[in-house]
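Example 3.2
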Amino acid sequence: MNINQEQLMIFKTVMETGSFSAASRQLGKVPSAVSMSIANLEIDLNLKLFKRVGREPIPTSQAQLLYEKTEQLLIEMNQWKQQAIALSEGLESSLNIVVVSELVHTDWTEYIALLAQQFPSLQINIFSAPQEDALKMLMNQTAQLALMFEREMLESREQFVELKKEALVPVSAINHPLSAHSKVSFEQILQSRQIVVASRDRTIKPELLYSKNYWRTDNHHSACSLILKELGWGVLPLEMFNENPELKHKLKILDLLDFTPKFEYFVDLVWSRESNLGSAARFLINHIRNQRIHTK
C-alpha cells in the first residue's frame, strides 16, 4: 500500500464536491487525472470507494468512514512536513525552559507565546525549580534556557541577557510576633524561624537564608502557606501581592532596622555556553537583546 498526500487530497475534494469534474476544477486538474487517482487509490486500498452509476459517483460506506479520518491525516502530514523543514533549518526537536520558583508569578508567558507563534510545531516544556536547581538543569543540559535571578558569582559556562527587575519582600503573618514591631532588628530576624525557598539538594546552602532556624521548601506557594500559618517569616515575590490582593490583609511586609538586604534583583535569561542551542532558543535570546536595545 502506497498512499500519498495528493491522493488523499483528491479523495477529500471528490467527497466534498460530489463529482470528479467539480473536484478537477477546484484542484486545477483534468477530470481524467482525478478519475485515475481515485481508481489507483481503490486498487491500493483494495476497496470500492465510489459507485459509478449515473453522472455522479456515489460514495460507499467505506468511503464515508475513511473520509472522517482524512482531514486529520492531512493536517498531521502537513505538520510532519513543516517539522521536517524546521529541523533541517536548525529548529530543536523540543525546548526545555526552567523558571525559578519565585518568578512563576511574573509575566514570563509572553515569551512562550511568542515562541509558539514563531515556531508552531515546536514542543515546549516548562519546569519550575529553586534557583540552585535551575542552574544545575542548565549545566547538565536538562534545560536549554532558564529564567533566573542575577547572581554575584557566575559559572564560567554561563551566558545571560537581562530581562527586567523583580522585587522580593520579607514578610510574616499579621499575627506573627515579628509583625508586632514597626522595625525588625537583625537579631530578631536571626532568632526567628525562616521559611526559605531552596534547592532540593540539602547540601546546597539557600541563597536568601538569614535565620539560624529555618525550614526549607522548593517553591514559594508552599512557603507562603507556611508563613500564613505563622510558622515562620520568609521572603516572597512582591508580585504575589498584586496577583492576590487578599495577602495584603494577611501578611505584613517587614521593615528591617539594622540592614538592607538586596531584595531587588535583575531577572536574567540564562543558557550554557556548552549547549548547542537551536533556532528557537537563539530567536528568543536575540528578541530579548533587541528589546533591551530599543528600551535604552
